[in-house]
Amino acid sequence: MKRIWEFFLTLLLLVCLYIVFFAEGYVIIKTVFGLLYIAVILYTIYSLMLENRTAQHTLLWIYVLILFPFIGYMFYLYSGQLYLKGHLFKSKRKKDRDEWIRVSKQEEKPDFSDLKRHQQCFATHAHHITLTRLNRKTSSKILKNGKETFPEIFARLEEAKEYIHIQYYIFRSDRLGKDIIDLLIRKANEGVKVRFLYDGIGSLSLQQYDIDRMKKAGILVEAFLPVRYGFFNQKLNFRNHRKIIIIDGKVGFVGGLNVGVEYLGEDPEIGFWRDTHMVMEGEGVQVLHAIFLMDWEYVCGEDLLEDNHLTTSYPAEGDGTVHVVASGPDTQLGIMSDLFYSLISCAEKSIWIATPYFVPNEAIRTALRVAAKKGVQVRLLVPEINDGFLTQYATRSYFPELLRSGIEIYSYKKGFLHQKVIIIDGDTASIGTANMDMRSFHLNFEVNVFLLNTGSVRDLVEQYEEDMVESVRVKPVEFYKRGLWERTKESFARLFSGVL
User: Fold this and answer.
1) Any idea of the CA torsion for 241, 51, 130, 119, to the nearest 10 degrees?
2) pLDDT tens digits, 252-302
3) Is 121 a member of any domain?
4) In which compartments does the protein localize (predicted)?
5) 475 is catalytic
6) Which of 87, 287, 322, 493 could form a disulfide with 393, with the two C-beta atoms 3.0–4.6 Å apart?
7) Catalytic site residue 425?
8) Are residues 71 and 97 in the same domain?
């Protein structure tokens, strides 16, 4: 009913604009339809006010609705109101919560005595706001760039004996994608059960021919919220940004790399692609697997969490603590933002961040500024050239306040930096699919892994230092001298920060 009402109002606004500006007729008729248009906008503004957002967000959307006829209303309808109230994924969120409570078996009072003070600070908070437990019997290995990641993926897929569960935001039908599909088909012919989940928007370039090939081989293929559900379905803007591979419940992959030749650095328009992925073994794999299984059930109704064979945990020799956390519209609102905030606020010595898109909320910005003022070294590493106009200039719009607080900002110049990494005090880190932006905090389905005292954290530190060699520090004096046109582009892009 709500969608029908929104469709009716959209059509009514379009008719009003046409009659007022383009149709021939009496002035009184044009006036009536003009007043009708105003009434719809006022009704929308009133509904917006009842949502009790922050004053600045409310005023921003009021300006958009008034200053951009019809287009402003459409933009508000399909982006401005999306992440509020949480009604769109209410059933999935409730079911997933019940499943997490059942399968996670969290300790009531976990022992954090072996952790350092800043780690205890974060781990205690993470334990209270997440439904997944911190795992100590998990091994992790960092994979730098596509040149390390995809050979490892191919090798592990070859070893599959029982099942392969694979999920990607972007999966292309290019050379790399077809090679993986060929391998999956061959494993399916050997008797391995393969389930393949792809995002309906991110993987638009996945050809129907390849989908049919997989289905013919017995692979179960499903799309997450495909386009066929229609433009007027608000869920269109919610995307599954997760990248997960589970092999026999024993091996799990997660990180920033999708499937496409650009992630190997073979796209001449993009050039070198800097990214970070991770492979895990042990208890943490089962948490990652549960995230896949819940998404799988949502799209096709097949409940596999009741299958003890698929939910069996295989402990591994671990050298630290691993915590796998899912976030998105199907979890507690803003949980990834809260965890990032906790990481930052618990830091005592250093905060190193690498992200392709830096569009943080006010809480994250405040935490970074306060940390820098306390003497904590805060470094932000972003790409010199981004893959989108809005994301590039919205990111730069936050530079002035960060620079004034003494935060070090570096531009990565070797190519496009796509990794999503936070390193705290050199011994605690986050790696996964979530960017430090509003879309990852509120709209996308994401998954991150938090690492404490693992050897993989040391690898992340070493790789971050290597990336610094390929980067140039943004100098405050030079940045403040940028021209009016640059500042205008930054301010314009920042208007869209809520959906970037």
Assistant:
1) 90
2) 999 999 999 999 999 998 999 999 999 999 999 999 999 999 999 999 999
3) no
4) Cell membrane
5) no
6) 493
7) yes
8) no
Choosing from 144, 243, 289, 489, the catalytic residue is 243
What is the count of structural domains for the chain? 3
Q: Is residue 141 part of a domain?
A: yes
Alpha-carbon separation of residue 153 from 32, 156, 159, 221, 301 (angstroms): 64, 5, 10, 19, 28
Respond yes or no: is residue 420 known to be catalytic: yes
Question: Which residue carries 């078996």 as its tokens?
Answer: 105
- Residues comprising the chain, all counted: 500
Same domain, 472 and 406: yes
pLDDT of 171:
98
Does the active-site annotation cover 179? Answer: no
CATH assignment at residue 412:
3.30.870.10
Mean pLDDT is lowest, of 34-48, 177-191, 455-469, for 34-48
* Shared domain check, 289 and 256: yes
Look up 248 and say whether it is catalytic: yes
C-alpha to C-alpha distances, 346 to 99, 120, 255, 260, 282, nearest whole angstrom: 30, 9, 24, 37, 27
Q: Examine the domain organization and report whether 436 and 375 are in the same domain.
A: yes
Contact 420, 256 (CB under 8 A): yes
> Does residue 458 share a domain with residue 374?
yes
The interaxial angle of helices 145-158 and 175-189, nearest 10 deg, is: 10
* Residue of 144, 241, 250, 489 marked active site: 241
**d(Cα 103, Cα 352) in Å, to the nearest integer?**
34
Residue 35 lies in a domain: yes
pLDDT digits (tens, 9 = 90+) for 68-105: 888 888 777 766 554 444 556 777 887 888 787 777 76
- Please report whether residue 119 resides in a domain: no
Range of the domain at 234: 90-106+137-318
Residues 423 and 463 in one domain: yes
Regarding whether 75 and 94 lie in a shared domain, the answer is no
Contact 392, 428 (CB under 8 A): no
Judged by average pLDDT, the poorest of 319-323, 367-371, 496-500 is 496-500
Q: Tokens for 336, please give them.
A: 């990834």
Would you give the distance in Å from CA 250 to the centre of its chain?
25
| Catalytic residue (choose from 187, 420, 442, 489) | 420
- The residue behind tokens 């290995």 is 141
Q: In the predicted model, what is the mean pLDDT of the chain?
A: 91
Q: Catalytic one among 182, 248, 267, 387?
A: 248
User: Does the active-site annotation cover 418?
Assistant: yes
Tokens 């979530």 correspond to 434
Q: Do 162 and 50 sit in the same domain of this protein?
A: no
Q: CA 190, CA 160: separation in Å to the nearest integer?
A: 10
